[in-house]
Design goal:
Blueprint (H helix, E strand, L loop, with lengths): L6 H15 L7 H13 L4 H12 L17 H13 L6 H14 L1
Helix pairs in contact: 1-2, 1-3, 1-4, 2-3, 4-5
Amino acid sequence: MFDALSRDERLLLLRFACAFAWTDLEVTARERAFVRRLVERLELIGDEAEEVEGWLDVAPSPGDVDAAKVPVEHRRAFVETVRAIIYADGKVDPEERQQFERLKAALA
């Protein structure tokens, strides 16, 4: 699912994951672990991995997580990744669910 993503698309995917981790205004240890495993799976290193770590400390700018930037051919991967991050901490807050539904609608 992730093999077809370009470097920029991989970073965009991680921006979305981190933004959704911040939806409830707290990034839990489980969410951080999920994102770090995803960084490894996507084979990001150096500056790219550090950039993602920064998004775990400070939420990405809303303009950087625009659904219109998600390529049509990768929308399913984005939806599935966001679904996984919102469940990573074992609880889904109503705001997370609402934002997830908005994302799915925007990518439909």
